[in-house]
Amino acid sequence: MNKYHAEHTWLRVEGDKVFVGITVHAQDTLGDIVFVDLAEIGKSFAQAGVAGVVESVKAAADVHMPVSATVLAVNEDLRADPSLANYDPEGAGWFYQVSLSNPAEL
């Protein structure tokens, strides 16, 4: 089950893995996504910190980390095909796999 942040990002805990991405509403608002700028593996963020940028044919928007976390992996498929964030934003279009710095923020 996904949990949502006010800045239109989500996170999902799957066993010992935590995934982060943008919401359906965010991708609807942006329109066709053409580029994603993903944070480096190992970088840490405070809750609501800017963790990347999404660019569409309409606009660019910051991607905010929904919890304090450290990036363990980035979705290279999304980097190669940013439209995954439009077609499956809460599935194959995930941005990061992270480790939680403060699980109480969930």
What does this structure look like?
The chain has 106 residues and is of the alpha+beta class. It has 3 helices and 9 strands, in the order βββαβββββααβ. The strands form 2 sheets. Strands 1-2-3-9-8-5 form a 6-stranded antiparallel β-sheet. A 3-stranded antiparallel β-sheet has the order 4-6-7. A hairpin with a 2-residue loop joins strand 2 and strand 3 (17-22). It is globular. The protein starts with a strand and ends in a 6-residue tail after the last strand.
Notable features of this structure?
9 strands, 106 residues, 44% strand, three-stranded antiparallel β-sheet, alpha+beta
Number of helices: 3
Order of helices and strands: EEEHEEEEEHHE
Fraction of residues in helices?
Answer: 10-25%
Overall, the morphology is globular
Distance between the termini: 12 Å
Strand order of the largest sheet: 1-2-3-9-8-5
Tell me the number of strands: 9
| Helix-strand makeup class | alpha+beta
The amount of beta strand, in percent, is: 35-45%
Query: C-alpha Rg, in Å?
Result: 12 Å
Profile the largest sheet.
Answer: 6 strands, antiparallel
Assembly context of the chains: single chain
